[in-house]
Amino acid sequence: MQKNSQLRIGVTLHYRDDQQSIWENGIFQNCFFLIQLLKKIPEVEFACLLIDREESVRLPDALWMDTLNLSVLGLNDGMEQLNIVIEMSALLPDEWAHSFRNKGGRYYWMRVGNDYFLDVERAIYNKSPASLVSDKVYDAIWTLPEYEKSCKDYFELASRAPVFIVPHLWTPYFLERGISQLPESQKYAYIPGKKHWRIAVMEPNMSMVKTSLTPILAIEKAYRKNPFFLEYARICNALIINKHPDFILFTQSLNIVRHGLTSFEGRFPTPWFMSSEADAVVSHHWENGQNYLYYELLYGGYPLIHNSAFLGDCGYRYEGFDAHHAAKKLLEAYQTHDLSGADRLFSWRKLEKNLSNDNEDNITAYKNLFFS
Q1: Which of 61, 85, 217, 329 supports an S-S bond with 316, CB 3.0-4.6 Å?
Q2: What gap in Å lies between CA 243 and CA 4, rounded to an integer?
Q3: Where does 180-355 sit in CATH, by number?
């Protein structure tokens, strides 16, 4: 594409129904953050959401788009008005993608999930396919640093397109909207001085890339070492696994369950849950270390015990699947966070600037993808 071209870009969003919420998954936020950044590139004339319906619809109020000034196109208008499509939340029909490229449009694919692991699970456990490998021709595939190790070759060779690693984007827009809806009695901020901590685990438990097992083991180990520190443990997103015989046997072997200190909960928005139910979070990932949940917790000053290499010196990092190390970091946080919280917030502010879609380095990185 010539440098004097005016770019008219659509980022795909899956439209399911009028009950969709911004808290369902991170990909909706990712779409919005990317469009906001694209609109800051001088060569971009127009950037919008492209939904997987022939005609445009009004998106649900629960997606919180009302103040973002984002246009929405259906596929019919998108074919006429756009010259670049970035496939992200919605995978568009192969025929539409072929027609778009045949008229001279450029077609990119942005992958923001660990599809190597997810596709292995779909095949092994006979889950519904996601149709990620198709007959489409992509100009390039974009993905995040967290997936370079596990997914880069899978994306490149299966799709026959070059892969580029792009910055992860985040702003507190949606988090602050959620915070603004809290009752006055609930404050989204770590409160120092508590003798006993309420610990949360908030992994989705929908794939092996983000599960609760290592965090549960870490809490158990920390409790065995210092029973005084724990008020209770809330294991969120657990209703899909807490009836499984293996999970029941596992949890019933633990003191934190035997002593009645653990509950297994559903899914909750981060602002409400942390402001009312928890003081700290123990997290775990496998090749999925850039997570909006981390940023939301760090924004509130909450102690985050994690194993992500992408957070710098933010939070309390342990290695890999080492539950003993995670327990040590949890107790370190319990003993020191009240004194070190201000310094840790300063570290977070630096990381937050690096994630912003106002960051000039991020804007340049995405701009260069169109003119390389």
Answers
A1: 329
A2: 59
A3: 3.40.50.2000
